[in-house]
């Protein structure tokens, strides 16, 4: 039994070492990591978390990064993204998750000065984000396009082949990863979805059945 406990303790220590230390990170270097970590802890859907990352990139394409607290703005972007995608985030949950992610091992904040300071800062940041976005929260989601393309292409595969190759999971992972870069703003949602699907097929070495019968040399999923 002691051996099992020792192994579990070792695994927990390794897990803790892998977690980023946001307090010592320079500038905004881990900002999108923070968004994704907090979004997962809050139980948000991948598309909502990705939308928060887009709002963050849009905000700091216009604003000076030296003028704002990185993690307060990230938390505000998660709250705004939740509202825009009908997946609202409770302010107290957002504040506690953000605070715990920055201060590893800390418990939930009591309803005291520190909590209300955090909550007030996040609320103000939400207004700033909304203003800088022009109160336009209608962001085309590449996730919707990718899901549509995956369903379309799945029909071309035998069921056993589709299940054995994690095309959908790989393409979605590529799409999520690209949201860490501000370059995500430079491309249209359908193009992002096709690019991630194509990359997944190439990386997995999967050929689409019947693709050789197409008259055009380039298929839509490899544009």
TrEMBL record:
<dbReference type="Pfam" id="PF00134">
    <property type="entry name" value="Cyclin_N"/>
</dbReference>
<dbReference type="InterPro" id="IPR048055">
    <property type="entry name" value="Cyclin-Q_first_cyclin_box"/>
</dbReference>
<dbReference type="InterPro" id="IPR013763">
    <property type="entry name" value="Cyclin-like_dom"/>
</dbReference>
<dbReference type="InterPro" id="IPR048053">
    <property type="entry name" value="Cyclin-Q_second_cyclin_box"/>
</dbReference>
<dbReference type="InterPro" id="IPR043198">
    <property type="entry name" value="Cyclin/Ssn8"/>
</dbReference>
<dbReference type="GO" id="GO:0016538">
    <property type="term" value="F:cyclin-dependent protein serine/threonine kinase regulator activity"/>
</dbReference>
<dbReference type="InterPro" id="IPR036915">
    <property type="entry name" value="Cyclin-like_sf"/>
</dbReference>
<protein>
    <recommendedName>
        <fullName>Cyclin-Q</fullName>
    </recommendedName>
</protein>
<dbReference type="GO" id="GO:0006357">
    <property type="term" value="P:regulation of transcription by RNA polymerase II"/>
</dbReference>
<dbReference type="InterPro" id="IPR006671">
    <property type="entry name" value="Cyclin_N"/>
</dbReference>
<keyword id="KW-0195">Cyclin</keyword>
<feature type="domain" description="Cyclin-like">
    <location>
        <begin position="33"/>
        <end position="131"/>
    </location>
</feature>
<comment type="similarity">
    <text>Belongs to the cyclin family. Cyclin-like FAM58 subfamily.</text>
</comment>
């Amino acid at each position: 039994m002691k051996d099992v406990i020792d192994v579990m303790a070792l695994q927990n220590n390794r897990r803790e070492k892998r977690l980023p230390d946001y307090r010592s990170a320079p500038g905004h270097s881990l900002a999108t990591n923070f968004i994704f970590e907090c979004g997962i802890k809050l139980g948000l859907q991948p598309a909502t978390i990705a939308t928060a990352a887009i709002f963050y990139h849009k905000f700091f394409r216009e604003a000076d990064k030296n003028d704002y607290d990185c993690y307060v703005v990230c938390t505000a972007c998660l709250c705004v993204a939740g509202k825009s995608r009908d997946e609202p985030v409770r302010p107290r949950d957002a504040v506690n998750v953000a605070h715990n992610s920055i201060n590893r091992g800390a418990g939930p904040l009591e309803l005291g000065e520190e909590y209300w300071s955090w909550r007030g800062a996040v609320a103000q940041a939400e207004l700033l984000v909304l203003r800088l976005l022009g109160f336009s929260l209608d962001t085309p989601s590449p996730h919707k396009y990718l899901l549509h393309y995956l369903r379309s292409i799945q029909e071309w595969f035998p069921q056993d082949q589709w299940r054995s190759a994690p095309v959908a999971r790989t393409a979605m992972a590529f799409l999520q990863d690209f949201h860490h870069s501000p370059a995500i703003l430079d491309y249209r949602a359908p193009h992002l979805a096709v690019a991630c699907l194509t990359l997944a097929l190439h990386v997995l070495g999967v050929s689409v059945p019947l693709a050789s019968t197409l008259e055009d040399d380039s298929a839509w999923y490899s544009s």
